[in-house]
TrEMBL record:
Residues 120-204 form the Reverse transcriptase zinc-binding domain. PANTHER family: OS05G0353850 PROTEIN, POLYNUCLEOTIDYL TRANSFERASE, RIBONUCLEASE H-LIKE SUPERFAMILY PROTEIN. SUPFAM superfamilies: Ribonuclease H-like. Signal peptide: none annotated. This is Reverse transcriptase zinc-binding domain-containing protein. Pfam families: zf-RVT. GO terms for molecular function: nucleic acid binding.
Length: 366
């Protein structure tokens, strides 16, 4: 069946919905390289930037047009000499960091472009469908915080920008006034309510600016929550950890706001005292926040490989996740004698990919 106007053709609801979502699907997926990858180097989407030809201009010979990933990649590295165009540094570093061992044992496969681990999930698809840039989010640490479960849930919702402040409600189409009910000056965003509003700001200063970082009032919401929930600092109050003060603090500010909005109660000037009181009460009940767990000394030392074997130790890191990554390794014999070592700039990669890449590099340098 053919028609000059494709949209006039009769089709099922499912097919119509699939066509509607095709653009989101294309933006949200890419190929993960497999063994002897048959993907076209320029025209298939296999980097985080989509097809390379859509972002790199310049003439290509017919031979270059048809070049495949497997023509450039080998276990020893990338053969850049076959390309006449120079790749932008960010893309070059991303490709450079793809460990060859990654695509040594499986076929090309489609993965999600909107999550850090490549697995599909509905929330990342929803963000893409709304036209927003994907945000890689790892919030598992929230569930390890030693605070009340309801505060953990509250922090989780803050991370997902889903606390029902007036600005959030308006962004979902509700007809509400977005002005902050506490100061009547600024839009009530989550970061405004919990930090920047003068009610919150004076509360945090009363709680002890001495332990706060210099960028406390300038970080974005996620960094602000993560930094304060991961710090090892003690607060000024009975050596209770700052994490407890902070977590109780944001919860108390939210509760206080709701009392003002929904119960018409007057705004309190002494929220910080209530926070200290609740934090002390929690810390006394949950002893572990005051009494540090005794440290157990454990000897960590290099152990010899079995007779006739060599041992390769590697370590790598990335500045950001993903970010510029580098690392190195050392190869030793069964007697512990140095055999070989190496250091490498890996490119732009996650710390996990960097660690895997080093293992591959180490095994090939032997
Ligand atoms: Zn305000």
């Amino acid at each position: 069946m053919s028609s000059s106007n494709e949209n006039s053709l009769s089709s099922s609801r499912i097919w119509k919905a699939m066509k509607k979502g095709m653009d989101v699907f294309k933006r949200g997926t890419r190929w993960s390289l497999g063994r002897d990858s048959n993907l076209r180097f320029w025209y298939d989407s296999w980097t985080s930037n989509g097809p390379l030809r859509s972002i790199i201009y310049g003439p290509l010979t017919r031979e270059e047009e048809e070049i495949k990933v497997k023509d450039l990649a080998s276990i020893d590295g990338w053969n850049w000499g076959k390309l006449s165009l120079i790749l932008p540094p960010k893309i070059f570093l991303e490709i450079q960091a793809m460990p060859r061992s990654h695509f040594a044992n499986e076929e090309d496969r489609i993965i999600s472009n909107a999550t850090a681990n490549g697995n599909f999930n509905l929330s990342s698809a929803y963000i893409l469908a709304n036209g927003e840039a994907p945000q890689f989010f790892d919030g598992k640490w929230i569930w390890k915080l030693k605070v009340l479960p309801r505060i953990q849930s509250f922090i989780w919702m803050c991370f997902h920008n889903s606390i029902a402040t007036r600005e959030r409600l308006a962004s979902r189409g509700l007809q509400v006034d977005t002005v902050c009910p506490m100061c009547n000056l600024h839009p009530e965003t989550i970061i405004h309510l919990l930090r920047d509003c003068h009610v919150a700001a004076s509360c945090w200063q009363s709680l002890g600016m001495g332990v706060l970082s210099f960028d406390f009032f300038s970080l974005d919401l996620r960094s602000w929550l993560a930094n304060n929930c991961k710090t090892t600092s003690a607060s000024n109050h009975l050596q209770i950890s700052w994490i407890v003060i902070f977590a109780v603090g944001i919860w108390a500010l939210w509760s206080h706001r709701n009392r003002v909005v929904f119960k018409n109660m007057p705004s309190s000037q002494a929220i910080h005292r209530d926070i200290i009181h609740r934090a002390v009460e929690y810390a006394l009940v949950a002893q572990s926040t005051i009494t540090k767990q005794p440290r157990i000394a454990r000897n960590i030392r290099w152990e010899r490989p079995n007779r006739g074997w060599y041992k390769l130790n590697t370590d790598g890191s990335s500045l950001g996740n993903p970010g510029m990554a580098s690392g190195g390794g050392i190869l030793r014999s069964e007697s512990g004698t140095w055999v070989k070592d190496f250091t490498r700039k890996i490119g732009i990669a996650t710390s996990f990919v960097a660690e895997c890449g080093l293992l591959g590099m180490g095994s090939t340098c032997v």
